[in-house]
Amino acid sequence: MNRKELNPEAGPEAAFGARLRRSREERRWTQEQLGERMGFSATHISAVETGRKISTLRFSRSADVVFGLAGTEDTFERQWREIRHGVLLEGFPEFLGYESRAAEIRLYEVGVIPGLLQTPEYATVLAQSAVKRGAITDAQAAERVTIVADRQAVLRRTPPPMILAVLDESCIRRPLGGPEVMREQFTRLLEFAELPNTVLQVAPFDLGERRPFDLPVTVLTLPDRSIMSYAESAQRGHLERDNASVVPVLTAYHQLQAEACTQAASVALIDQLRKGIS
Q1: Position 7 confidence tier, pLDDT thresholds 50, 70, 90
Q2: pLDDT grade, residue 55 (50/70/90)?
Q3: Are strands 104-109 and 237-240 parallel, antiparallel or unpaired?
Q4: Do residues 183 and 277 lie in contact, with contact meaning Cβ atoms separated by under 8 Å?
Q5: CA–CA separation, 20 and 67 (whole Å)
Q6: Based on the domain organization, do 69 and 108 belong to the same domain?
Q7: Distance from first CA to last CA of the chain, Å, rounded?
Q8: Is residue 251 helix, strand or coil?
Q9: Is 189 in contact with 132 (CB distance < 8 Å)?
Q10: Would 203 be classed as within a structural domain?
């Protein structure tokens, strides 16, 4: 029998494949037996183990069910997401996993429209600007746009999460991608504000020193009512789970909401900007 030696150090896909083989052999299953349990062919199992084929979300979730990892911290799905999101800031892939399950999402953004509210055209302009700066490749830019679209699936989830979004005024004042891109983006914001499970507010420039955050921040409430916060620097993202650290962030967010424009005033401002685009 030809058995290819695997090198988990060769890359993230190789590490995934080696883990799959190790998990299978620990149970003394053949590739055929694992394939039957997962709903894939033995050839497909072999290709993933040896790195000739990249795993998919369905494959990863099936492996988690078969190996009893579903709902745990160290799943194949998490490993797959880390591979797929390798172009993103450290810490962000882990945040995405929690965001997709959150019961409530509170977000504050500065300078750009947040990903959950971006149109594909707006997201593409942002990604392509990073390509022009030499920060990422065209393929990585396309991946970023896909990730934005995937994240927005949470808006269509049943039941959907409660989403409270506060945008610094710079988000809507900064022109990006030309008039048509901004017009469509403003339309998307107005549609978002009309949803029954959303609140949209603008934090005006004249908030001044009363603005509690200098950087973007997100606070998630999970279905078990536990809370966590996520913030980014230029180098990495940080997910905080300790209540002693998260509660002050949540308190500051409530203060921000109290100081920001009402949703009615915010919608009126965005609509005025949309109508003023020539």
Answers
A1: confident
A2: confident
A3: unpaired
A4: yes
A5: 10
A6: no
A7: 70
A8: helix
A9: no
A10: yes
Q: List Cβ neighbours of 12 (8 Å cut-off, separation of 6 or more).
A: 79, 82, 83, 86
Q: Which two tokens stand for residue 31?
A: 């590739």
DSSP character for 11? -
Q: What's the mean per-residue pLDDT of the chain?
A: 90
74/24 same-domain check: yes
Amino acid of residue 55:
S
CB 149 within 8 A of CB 93: no
Tokens standing for residue 25: 């052999």
In a domain, 123, yes or no: no
Residues 6+ apart with CB under 8 A from 133: none
Average pLDDT score over residue span 232-253: 86
Residues in a beta bridge with 77: none
CA distance 86 to 100: 18
Residue at token pair 């999460």: 161
Rounded Cα distance, 180 and 182, in Å:
5
